[in-house]
Amino acid sequence: MQAFVLKQQQEIESSRIQLAVALAGGGSHFLSTLTSTPASRLLGAATMRRAVYLTAKGDKLHVPSIVQVSTAPQASSQDITTRMGQSMGIAMTSKLQSTSKWPSRAYVVVERQNGPSLTIEATLSSSSARTRLEEDVFVSHMLLTCLEKALNEDDDTLNGNVVKANGKDHDRIVTTDCGDVLAISVPPKIDPQQAVADAIHRILSQGESCVMLIPDYSTSRVIGSNGNTLHWKPLAAPSLPPKSLVVSGSFNPPHVGHIGLARAALDATTCPTVWFELALTNADKVNDWTVEQVLNRLNGFATLLPDPQTNPFSWGVILTNNAPLFVDKAYLLDPLQAKSKLKRLAGQEQLHFVIGTDTLVRMVDPKYYDNSRDEMLDTLARMPCRFVVGGRLQQNKDANNGQLEVFVTGKEQVDELPNELKDKFVLLPHFRMDISSTELRKRMAAIGKGNEAQRN
């Protein structure tokens, strides 16, 4: 096993991959190997349970949940979404110690963030006379072999004619000299850009509630005169770092105000990363988005955040479905946070939503709660999140019924709340960027009309 570690040291350090391990039953030698130096740089999170997820006959296979490693301690705040995109999970559930009646069995899944990359159903020979310790070494070596293939993306050798085993389709059946049977399955490779289009389609047409995308700068390219076109990587298992900062909006188009507000919110909190949340559908509007329109909206971020080395923060995009209200967004996204049950029950490491004062005014207005102030206060108290409030210009009428622009910070609205609710709001009284998507669209429309007139 140590030979594997030394062989993979250089690749591990250059790939920056973080590994999550979930084991039930055997595999202790695999875990001890990974926690040794230098493989410890690979391991981001691990859990091992004594519980076994197989029946006595081994006819019910269940893989324990793979721990998300988006907030591994090795990742800096500037590097979290990069780590998320490069993270990998390996899980095994096993029932070891062969008997003459029931053979030992193990089920392994290796999963990258773009989906499963390898599964193995192993039935160990009952005639090999292995001890429990020797069986643990065997399955641990199998785990290391799976990890090696996943790190090298070496799965082409496993593709071939589909074969049957235990009534299921597999790509390859391997029988060892001792009589162990390994049924190996490798999902077909999917083009990365097709994976993004499929993820968007699931939101638009199949009712999926949430899709997370992170920018893939390693494959981005410059197209035309519009600057960078980002490629995106959908996360197969959506997971948010604790205390994520979520900036919601239509982003039509994204602009420097969105980036400036996110940066100011980060400076005012201890949140590690920013997620721009784009609601594609809701219950009140007819969905008329296309996949191309969503991609165009996403690519608007390319010129604003073009370089991971100079970007002011680590970031990604969340596409949501049927979550028009912040109470809906909070209950949709809070369960996705990778934090302990104790911290969740204690209300620690909550999501932070970034809102403008116009949204704050509506949020604390009883008329949106059946004209009940008590209902409004109760709803705010139960929401598992906090809010970072950026000031905005507000159009008010002056004494002569004229338009008067007033900069509102939200302090007046928060001061009217009970003390126990005031802590849910973080005000940014010194942040001000007087720019809006509406004004930008007007300017772009005017420029378009001018160019058309010149052509005519």
Compose a concise summary of this entry:
By secondary structure, the chain is α/β, with parallel strands linked by helices. It has helices spanning 2-15, 28-34, 80-86, 132-151, 192-205, 256-268, 291-299, 326-333, 341-345, 357-363, 373-382, 411-415, 419-422, 437-455, and strands at residues 19-24, 43-49, 88-95, 105-112, 115-123, 163-165, 168-170, 172-175, 181-185, 210-222, 228-234, 245-248, 274-281, 315-321, 351-356, 385-390, 392-397, 403-408, 425-428.
Structure characterization notes:
This protein is of the alpha/beta class and 456 residues long. 31% of the residues lie in helices and 26% in strands. It contains 14 helices and 19 strands. The protein has helices spanning 2-15, 28-34, 80-86, 132-151, 192-205, 256-268, 291-299, 326-333, 341-345, 357-363, 373-382, 411-415, 419-422, 437-455, and strands spanning 19-24, 43-49, 88-95, 105-112, 115-123, 163-165, 168-170, 172-175, 181-185, 210-222, 228-234, 245-248, 274-281, 315-321, 351-356, 385-390, 392-397, 403-408, 425-428. The chain has an eight-stranded mixed β-sheet, with helices on both faces. A hairpin with a 2-residue loop joins β4 (105-112) and β5. α2 packs across α4 (132-151) and α5 (192-205) packs across α7. The longest helix has 20 residues, at 132-151. It is elongated, with a radius of gyration of 26 Å. Mean pLDDT is 75; it is low at 50-78, 155-167 and 222-226.
